[in-house]
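Project standup — Tuesday

K.O.: blocked on the structure for the chain from last sprint. Re-posting the sequence here as requested.
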Amino acid sequence: MPAKVSSYMTSPVIAASPYDNLAHIRNLMIRHHVGRVVIVEDSKPIGIITKSDFIRALFSRRRYTKPLEEIKAEEVMTKELIVIEENKSIKNAAKLMIRYGISGLPVVTRDGGLVGIITLTDLTRAYAERYRGRLRVFDAMRKDPPIVSRSHSLFYIADLLSKDPAGKVIVVEGNKPVGIITKSDVAFLNTLLLSHNIKYIKRTSIEKGRATAVRIYAIPIAADIMTPNPLTTKPLEDLALAADTMIKNNISGLPVVDDEGILMGIVTKIEIARALSKL
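H.V.: unblocked you, prediction finished:
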């Protein structure tokens, strides 16, 4: 019988007010090492902000010129909140996350009070603990992960991240994975926050016959922000062992490679949850 949500949920929940600003939300995420903050009012959840919301806010033409201190949580939070009761099964939680394309569910009591949160990480831990020997990585992996080269620009990468369900981009060289980039790498990148430490180079521009010095600001590329030498897995490995590797190393995805190290696909916490939902 599948375990209950209450057995794997995280409590207490990192929460904030709809009137808190994004700088505060960002600090909460970094300080507590979480990917989402639940927005509450009168002790009940009314919204949620995730790393995906941060990326959308940072690259929104309407908001990117505003400092984070001037953007309120209520402006960017997801308001159509999907929740789950604490007595439901983890299989039900997995089905909801897959159906709605979300990475976490606030856990509530019957009267709607917030008591916890269950995430893809929690489901991955449950799979690692309870379902060894059921599936191989090949049975669950995704075969078409987004890939980039070391020199692709931050803006192209951010676009790929916003479209990828798992928020992962693999950096390849000779069809072999040499790095991985996640939403956290972009959402919490200092250069995106209009930092005064952005590096620039000076070049000479000729205008109306006069030489003028201009500053050209450097745009980060994949090589600047990727995590190099990512952990990988093989297609015939037990999916529960891959899940255990993710939990023990605090990562959310593993490139899948063949015996020569050639990229075959990726397995992430989303694939783990999808597998769990079908068991």
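K.O.: great, moving the ticket to review. The two ends are 11 Å apart (CA to CA). Residues 137-186+222-278 form a domain with the CBS-domain fold (CATH 3.10.580.10).
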